[in-house]
Amino acid sequence: MLTLMVCLFAGNISGQERRIVFLAGKPSHGYGAHEHLAGCRVLAQSIERALPDLKCEVISGGWPEDDAVLDGADSIVMYCDGGRRHPALEHLEQLRSLWKRGVGFVCLHYAVEVPKDSAGEVFLSGLGGYFETHWSVNPHWTANYQSLPTHEVTRGVKPFAANDEWYFHMRFQPDMQSVTPILSAVAPPETMTRKDGPHSGNPAVREAVGRAIPQHTAWVFERPDGGRSFGFTGGHYHWNWGREEILKLVGNAIVWTAKVEVPSGGLDVRRPTLSELQQGQDEAMPAKHDQAQIQAKFELLP
Predict the structure, then answer these.
(1) Into how many domains does the chain fold?
(2) For the residues 213-221, what does the mean pLDDT come to?
C-alpha cells in the first residue's frame, strides 16, 4: 500500500508544535462522492491558511504504514469507508491508547460507522456516538439547520440548509452523557420511504421521524480521559466542502479537538471554487458531468 504524506506546514504554538493527522481512506464511490483524500486536503489546507502555527499531515490508504506517524499527534481525523471495511478495526487497541493520552478524534461521514459486535462499544467510548446498523439510517436529504448551539465549534457559522447523505438516529452515549449535539434537524417523512434494513429503516427510527424529533447529525464529545472528539455524518458529496458553513464548522471542530483555541469568528476559511474541488479526485470526471448543475445545486463558486 502506497502511503502519501502531505506535510502542509510546520509551526509552533506556545513553544510546542501542534499536529493534526488526517487518515484518508482508499478510493470508494464514483466521481464527486466519498473523495476522502481530496476532502482531507481541502480541510487541511483550510486550517493551514487560517492557523499557520499548526502542522497538518494527510495520509492516504486509510492507516499509516508506520504507526510512528501518529506519535505526538494532537488530533486524528478519519475520513474513510466504514462498516466492516473500517481501517480502525485492526487498530482499536492503538486508538484506545491514543485516547488515554488525550489525543483528539474526529470521524467524518462513513467513518462514523463500525460493526456493533466488534467495535461499537469502542467507538461509543471514543467518539460519543456512532452509526449502528438496524438502528441508524443513511438517506439523502436536505437538512435545514435553523439554529446552532453556542459552542467553540460553531463560532462564525450561520444556520444553513444543505443536501447530503446525512446519517441520523445515531447510537449515542446513554442520556447523551458528555455529548453536545452541534447540528440537529427534523428529518422529513421522505427519509423513511425505503424498506426496513441495516441502513434504511427500522421501527424505532420511523417512530422518531413520525414524532418530528430532531435528529443529530454532528456532535462533540468531551471524553472522560480529557480528550475531545467530533462526529460528522455529512461528507458524502465532495462539493459540500465548497460551502463556507460546512467548511468552517468542520474546520473549527477539528481544531477544537486538538485543544487549539478557535478564533472568535471561527476559522477564516476561503471557499474552494468548483474548479479547485475538481482537482485531485480519485476518479476521472465523467464525460457527461454537468458542471453548471453541480455549481447551482451546491451553491459553489465557479
Answers:
(1) 1
(2) 98
| 207 conformational bin, left if phi > 0, alpha if psi -120 to 50, beta if neither | alpha
pLDDT reading at 25 higher than 50 = yes
Indicate which CATH number applies to the domain containing 60. 3.40.50.880
**CA 102, chain centre distance (Å):** 19
219 and 181 Cβ atoms separated by less than 8 Å: yes
Q: Is residue 302 part of a domain?
A: no
Contact criterion met (CB below 8 Å) for 216 and 168: yes
Sheet with 179-185, side-by-side order of all strands: 5-7, 54-59, 18-24, 75-79, 104-108, 228-232, 215-222, 179-185
Handedness of CA 37, 269, 33, 278 (dihedral sign): negative
Q: Could you tell me whether strands 75-79 and 215-222 are parallel, antiparallel, or unpaired per DSSP bridges?
A: unpaired
Give residue 26's pLDDT band: very low, low, confident or very high (50, 70, 90): very high
Close Cβ partners of 113 (under 8 Å, ≥ 6 residues apart): 82, 83, 86, 130, 131, 133, 136, 167
Q: Give the domain range for residue 264.
A: 5-297
Q: Using the predicted structure, report yes or no on whether residue 5 has a pLDDT greater than 90.
A: no
